[in-house]
Specification:
Blueprint: H1 2-29, H2 31-50, H3 59-68, H4 71-92, H5 95-117, H6 126-129, H7 133-136, H8 144-155, H9 157-178, E1 182-188, E2 191-197, H10 199-210, H11 229-253, H12 262-277
Antiparallel strand pairs: 1-2
């Protein structure tokens, strides 16, 4: 037992030292990705407040609403812990794990929107919804048509098509980065083309271009170097688009619900659209 404790203590000390050096690297070379991590956490905290049942409702009614909708436990028990972990994974050099948490966040809110909008599930409590076959078999791509129908009702056809594309593209790029080998579909003026992707390919490309693998391709935890900046920029872009996807989904989800601050949800989406899409 003492030997195991000694080994674990050494791992903890190594991790702390690497994290401190990586924080210095990030602050001097790419602080934007650090800011993005905290922006995501703040968004989730704000969303949890804005989407909660209005305080103007009787307590009993608020309790019924909280137990009815799947979005509430998804935000509290899945989205927030994973958003918080990303800021820990970043200084650890654990980029694949950060991408995995981002994908989990996106999948959680997308499936919650699907389940809470599905007619046959509307009278079920959220604990019953997660036991329903249509929910526990759900994937973002598997329910894309249902999600699009909800978005069309809220945003209209043109905007819904634009928004579902943002959500699916974000999910696809995140999925490609956490699998050893994968594929992505790149949309160009000439149409959609399929390309090889995946974690191993990303490591191989960095090694070819920079002469050294990225930190996560050698050991986790490990200190960042200049060869990791491209992946860090990619992480920042993915965080931005998960934030935008979360705002799009939240705005659609609140339709017809007595939430605490509908105006803030709409304004937040408008602000992100201006910042991220010009």
């Amino acid at each position: 037992m003492e030997e195991i404790k000694k080994l674990l203590k050494g791992d903890i000390e190594l991790s702390c030292n690497v994290m401190l050096r990586n924080v210095d690297f990030l602050l001097h070379n790419y602080v934007d990705v650090v800011d993005a991590c905290y922006d995501l956490i703040n968004d989730v905290i704000d969303m949890a407040y804005w989407l909660r049942p209005s305080r103007s409702l009787p307590r009993e009614e608020r309790t019924v609403i909280v137990h009815k909708y799947l979005m509430y436990p998804m935000l509290d028990l899945v989205v927030f812990p994973n958003a918080y972990f990303i800021r820990i994974a970043l200084p650890l050099g654990a980029l694949p794990q950060a991408f995995y948490s981002l994908r989990t966040i996106l999948e959680a809110v997308a499936i919650a929107l699907y389940a809470d909008s599905k007619e046959e599930l509307k009278d079920l409590a959220h604990v019953q919804k997660i036991e329903h076959k249509s929910v526990y078999h759900a994937t973002v791509f598997g329910v894309k048509d249902s999600l699009k129908r909800v978005l069309v009702e809220v945003y209209g056809t043109r905007k819904a098509e634009e928004f579902i594309e943002i959500i699916l593209s974000a999910y696809e790029y995140l999925s490609a980065y956490i699998h050893p080998v994968a594929r992505v579909k790149l949309r160009t003026e000439r149409g959609v083309k399929e390309h090889a992707a995946g974690l191993l390919r990303a490591i191989a490309l960095t090694t070819t271009r920079r002469g050294i693998p990225p930190a996560y391709g050698l050991l986790i935890p490990l200190e960042y170097g200049p060869e990791d900046l491209e992946d860090l920029r990619y992480l920042r872009a993915c965080i931005d688009y998960v934030r935008l996807s979360l705002a799009i989904i939240a705005r659609a989800w609140i339709r017809g619900k007595p939430v605490e601050d509908e105006k803030a949800v709409k304004e937040h989406l408008r602000k992100l659209l201006g910042e991220l899409t010009g």
